[in-house]
Amino acid sequence: MTSLFSLPILSQQRIAPGIYSLELSTEGPFPARPGQFVDLKIPGKMLRRPISITDITEDRLILTYRVAGEGTAILSGMKPGEVLETLGPLGQGFVLPEESSHLLMVGGGIGTPPLIYLAKEALRQGHQVTVLFGFRSPADTLFQEELKAMGVDYHFAYDSEGENVVQLMQRLGLDDLPFFACGPMPMLKALCKAGSSDGQCSLEARMGCGFGACMGCSIKTRNGMQRVCKEGPVFSKEVLLWET
Ligand SMILES: Cc1cc2nc3c(=O)[nH]c(=O)nc-3n(C[C@H](O)[C@H](O)[C@H](O)COP(=O)(O)OP(=O)(O)OC[C@H]3O[C@@H](n4cnc5c(N)ncnc54)[C@H](O)[C@@H]3O)c2cc1C
Ligand code: FES
User: Fold this and answer.
1) Cβ proximity of 116 and 107 under 8 Å
2) Fewer beta carbons below 10 Å: N end or C end of the chain?
3) b vs e for 152-178, b when ≥16 Cβ sit within 10 Å of the residue's Cβ?
4) Largest separation between any pair of C-alpha atoms in the chain
5) Is the pTM higher than 0.90?
6) Distance from Cα 37 to the centre of ligand 2, integer Å
7) Per-residue model confidence as pLDDT tens digits over 102-140
């Protein structure tokens, strides 16, 4: 159920150029599934900012964000002890198969955070997991320590070294695995074309309310107009229309 929480900031750390990890204190595990997001009230801004859930522990909610504009710049200046009004969990998350299988998690840039929580949950449920993350350059790498600690099979692709994450998937011969993806639209489009199995993609859209009331985030799909904040942000590849 979606609720409004007042969550104190425990820590805020710059983990790569322009990228911050934010830990918020929760009373018990935050009640969200992988692929869902929260909407943060930034001081001085009317519209909330949607951020995916990177991870959840017994007593903290972990988010990762890129400073993209004014709102996230203000967020990056907030200090431990300050409280963030947090609406969530929002949207539909990824759906893992019931039977244990080999699953592929494909992330690009700041689209990688929700796949950390998803990979952990998939491992917990007994799936074999391979993670493929793509970044602009090695300096932009995120989550290497987390992936190592999970003991999951992972590989990185770098634009600066002439390979993107879809090419990496093809080079490793993993294009027949069911995939779970989040990243820029051109990456998702190329992945859906190249991957021969089922796929689920987490999309971004400019959001107003964040909970299904304003229709501002609607996109055209094979199932008609769908709200990214409500029916999404995760959609199966079959329903997506790649019009752009
Ligand atoms: C479901 C979802 C999950 C997301 N998860 C993450 C995440 O984990 N980490 C991360 O860094 N970013 C994430 N984003 C993008 C993030 O919401 C935007 O970068 C952020 O809202 C920009 O706010 P700003 O004030 O800094 O930028 P500005 O450009 O100044 O924002 C102006 C307005 O546009 C909206 N806006 C701008 N860019 C986006 C965008 N890409 N998506 C939606 N609204 C936008 C803002 O909410 C605000 O109302 C997510 C977006 C969505 C829709
Ligand atoms: S942002 Fe209002 S319906 Fe999605």
Assistant:
1) no
2) N
3) bebbbbbeeeeebbbebbeeeebbebb
4) 49
5) yes
6) 13
7) 999 999 999 999 999 999 999 999 999 999 999 999 999
Could you give the CA distance from residue 52 to residue 19 in angstroms, rounded to a whole number? 14
- Alpha helix segments (H runs only) across 48-111: 70-76
**Which of 46, 49, 219, 229 should be mutated for ligand 2, with most atoms under 8 A from CB?**
229
Q: Domain residues of the chain, as ranges?
A: 3-90, 102-202
Q: Please tell me the predicted confidence (pLDDT) of residue 160.
A: 98
Alpha-carbon distance of 175 to 97, in angstroms, equals 18
Q: What is the Å distance from ligand 1's center to 50 Cα? A: 6
- Report the CATH number of the 102-202 domain: 3.40.50.80
For 242, the token pair is: 């790649």
Can you tell me the distance from the alpha carbon of 184 to that of 187, in angstroms, rounded to the nearest whole number?
5
d(CA 183, CA 199): 13
Q: Do domains 3-90 and 102-202 have the same CATH topology?
A: no
